[in-house]
Amino acid sequence: MKHLPVFVEVVNKIVLVVGGSPKAARRAAMAERAQAKVKVVSETLSPEFQDLNTFQHIAREFCSSDLEGAIIVYVSDFNKELEAQVSFEAQKRGVLINVADRPELSSFIMPSIIDRSPLVVGVSSGGEAPILARMLRSKLETFIPSGFGRLVEFARLYRGRLHSLISNSTLRRRFWEDFSDGIVAERVLSGQIDEGKEMMELILRERESNPSERPKGEVYLVGTGPGDPDLLTFRALRLMQKSDIVLHDRLVPNGILELVHRDAERLFVGKKRGDHAVPQEEISRLLVSFAKDGKRVLRLKGGDPFMFGRGGEEIEMLASNNIAFQVVPGISAGNGCAAYAGIPLTHRDHAHSCTFVTGHTKDGKLHINWKMMINPDQTIVVYMGLNSLPTFFELFIEHGGDPKMPAAVVDNGTRIRQRVVTGDVRTLPDIVEKASFEGPAIIIIGTVVRLREKLSWYQGSG
Fold first, then answer.
1. Could you tell me which CATH class the domain 14-110 is placed in?
2. Highest mean pLDDT: which of 13-17, 118-122, 251-255, 309-313?
3. Which CATH superfamily groups domain 334-455?
4. Which of 48, 85, 169, 369 is paired with 254 by a 20 to 30 Å CA distance?
């Protein structure tokens, strides 16, 4: 992030606009809406300035004394020498300046704005791709109701009263979360303000009768999929934004963690091969403990929680302690990685079934029903098998498997660093060793692997 997003209060403060162009008029209009004292320095003004009401027009060329008392300067004059002069003078005085289309002369940039006053949303690409930022703003416009400003103003009326009525900050935050999705908000957004106030008063009277309420804890067991944030479910995103604390493992990438509620505490409980940073029993105990403290606990798991994710063990502990929980399925690593590698797990001409197994060793051994693995009309997907891959394939052949059976390894599947190698059961271990994969990785065995050459569509940068 190259720019710090901030909102500057300009009420009754001087905002200087240098230039009389249509873009300068838009900057002046924006400053006027923010209740600034707008001064415009330009010999001539474009017709767009006729729509403004209170600005002061100084009909001459710019001089350095015009900066006196200004908090912000906008320049849009099409005179490169003048723009450079204003930038130099402003930055020498420590005054924030934006020169239209010349970021090298600016100390701040203008975002694309969604105005639902008093709610204002700014979208910026850091000046790198302003058109894309405007496109994103257009999409966000459709998600933010036009009456949302009324809702913000309505909430402001009750903010102080809620603060004195509900002293617990966690309960207060949850109240506003429920409010934003509730019937009162719907009434306000539709313009039925009086009816909304009646409902709000009823809710507050009920709160006054139970002032000692404690926060209720809950656990959200959420599958994040194989890594691409776009594969998250809507429900997963909603619960990620409601959490007080998040417990996550190494399979959850930063791109997904950044979508969690900003104020949520983050606790890494990840495991690596042969290195269990936090034992599973301790993770389950932490979930119970945090929930009993009244927290909304988010347990993020790569893939799907119930596909070799030990999610069942965690909710068993929660259920035995009478802790409320929700489970949000995720796209399993096997399904997601195979799809991004262009390998269908089932196909009428190749595989009528699919078997999921773990390559994780216990006591140094693979505990697998090898008789079931040797069916040539199926696809085998191996989780956590990168470290044991040579042993797995040796035992596969030893128990009657075809050494020429096609096989593939998908490393960092669905992510930008995705890499895929293919071969057969006999040759793949050497290919993988040369590739120096770090994982997470999925192994796919079966004739469906041959289809990758025709169906491959996703190319990572790995």
1. alpha beta
2. 13-17
3. Tetrapyrrole methylase, C-terminal domain (3.30.950.10)
4. 169
pLDDT tens string 237-291: 999 999 999 999 888 999 999 999 888 999 999 865 555 568 889 999 999 999 9
Residue 422's nearest CA partner among 306, 342, 359 is: 342
Q: What is the pLDDT of residues 79-118, one digit of tens each?
A: 899 999 999 999 999 999 999 989 899 999 888 889 888 8
pLDDT tens across 362-404, in order?
777 888 989 999 888 999 999 999 999 999 999 999 999 999 9
State residue 438's pLDDT score.
84
Sequence-separated (6 or more) residues with CB below 8 Å from residue 109: 3, 98, 103, 124, 126, 127
The closest alpha carbon to 149, from 172, 187, 117, belongs to 117
Q: Which amino acid is at 194?
A: D
Domain boundaries, the chain: 14-110, 148-208, 218-331, 334-455
How many other CB atoms are found less than 10 A from the CB of residue 79?
14
Known catalytic residue at 377: no
Identical fold, 218-331 and 334-455: no
Measured CA angle at 183 (ends 182, 186), to 5 deg: 95
Is 80 considered catalytic here? no
Please give the CATH architecture assigned to the domain spanning 218-331: 3-Layer(aba) Sandwich (3.40)
Q: Which of 66, 228, 244, 249 is catalytic?
A: 249
